[in-house]
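Sample A.
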Amino acid sequence: MTPARILILIVALGAAVGLALLVHGMFAQPKAPAPTVVAATAPPAMTRVLVAKTDLAVGDRLTADNMSWQGWPTATLNAAYISDGESAVAPKPGVDAVMQKASKTVSDMTTGGGPKMTAMIGDVVREPIFAGEPITAKKIVHSGDTSYMAVRLPEGMRAMALPLSVESGAGGFIAPGDRVDIMSTHTDQNKNGGGGMITETVLSNALVLAIDQKTDAPKSGATVTGVTITLEVPDINASAVAKARTQGGLTLALRSYADIGGRTGGPSADDGHGVRIFRGGAPAEVVTAQ
């Protein structure tokens, strides 16, 4: 083999090696960078507090449906918040966390939310509470407190107490939450000498707030008996109800649930008993015909 041919072979071999290295570099997979190790951060300590599940307005009653337990950072926990003292964070991630959450859910369902939640049921909202906001004693009134009735009354309404008996109260079947008509039976002053009796409807569709001091409806089939009934009366009709009470002969007619959607008020012009006077677009007074 001549020196020239040997030189050609050496050059060809070098070119082949260089081409192989170039092709390998083009198609080789890049190496993945080394994983960065990040230290795990412990979750903040959480405590379950009682919050409103929905927006609550003044006068609303607390129920198991509008309250719930929610995790709250323990570091920012206010002493006024109502807590069940349980942690809202599972000690371990994964299956243990799921099992612990499921266990608390089942416990809440079987106990009605626990003793602290059940103790709040029936209380009345004193100040508006927004959904997700913790419930505090400042914003609620317990049903046994003296200010309960004042909070329970809507704007423009008055609570008036009337005497009650089995005969005048639909046989004892009237209960808190029902609607009644107030009727007055008295001497007919329009007749000469005031002879004869007349019965007039003083107020229609009045809400029963309480019988004696019982404000809750009885269990199914039970009756509530008492000597005093407290009704929700519009302020413009309060004087008419008071006058009817002095005349005596009051009777309460229980309204059907199918007939409680009407307005609450006294006689109107279309029933021939009186005229409702409006001032500035609002009802001002009711003048009853004598």
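Sample B, a different protein:
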Amino acid sequence: MHIPYSYSLRNLWTRKLTTALTVSGMALVVFVFATVLMLAEGLKATLVQTGSYDNAVVIRRSSQTEIQSGVDRPSAAVVEARPEVAFGESGERLASKEMVVLVAMPKHEGGTPVNVIVRGVSQTGLKLRPQLKIAQGHTFRSGSTEIIVGKSIAERFTGAQVGGKLRFGLRDWTVVGVMDAGNSGFDSEVWGDVEQLMQAFRRPVFSSVIVKLNDPESFRSFKQAVESDPRLTVEAKRESTFYAEQSEMLARFISILGMVLSIIFAVGATIGAMITMYTSVANRTTEIGTLRALGFRRQNILQSFLLESLFLGIIGGVIGLGFASLMQFLSISTMNWQTFAELAFSFKLNVSIVFKSLLFALVMGFAGGFLPAARAARMNIVDALRAA
């Protein structure tokens, strides 16, 4: 014998105002909680999508980023000649010797200069990134001062549209194309001919060498070979792993900060739910006594009131998650703490975040409802009926 679930739902509907206020508080907490998780997930997804599992990145040993790295030309030639490196249709090695630097560019809004990654690549480098498409204009010509910019750069920075000119490295560079890199980190970069950029920035060495492997499973042998070669002082990583590591520091900070804020807000929402449930118990003393007199046990009373609180939590969770899902239509930019460059990314919702958010809402509901439910279950039948 148990109290029907509809009984708990009807009681919530009867107290519309207090139910709405409590649900609103829980929805706000779940919104913050889910948004923070989506923010961290969006950052990770953007950088993970930047790299390909088939490609390997070779940088100077102990360098955390390409900006800190330096690979001289003889070393780059040794890496490029490895048998694990694939050949293209024209018989060329699918290896791209690249240079990466930071330049300050003014944003549209306010004209505030922020750091942007400028990447020097060869035409082969374009082939290694199949996710990259030219959305406007055309790609740069080798040996020229033409550049292409990611779509996020074109949207946010002054002079970064097709036909515009950007000045860095003591030269003027003409924007001839906008690239769509599938919402990856390359959307926040500027690309040009590697040899021209190295001359402009007076860089005698490359920052990295990107190679496409014959077989993705040959990465281990490739890594062991280049890292044990006495002529080289480099290390190799899968490109997908390399870019995933770039998100760790900022994603961890966002998650920790978000968890702290969520917990603070959750305490307030839980107290609100507790007050609502205590009020419900106080107003339904006679009703509780009647239920006990009809033969319902203490356990049934406990379950019924606890279920009401869980309903408050799950309703608030669904509403908060619904509003949080709308954040996927927004794109924001921030500084990547690994590279100190501007990075644009979007919020990303997945099944894991949905599950965690709803579980978080249920935990708030349980925490807010347990003590009031226990109080209702402990009521003496005679005392409860006498209160009528």
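Observation for Sample B: The chain has 13 helices and twelve strands.
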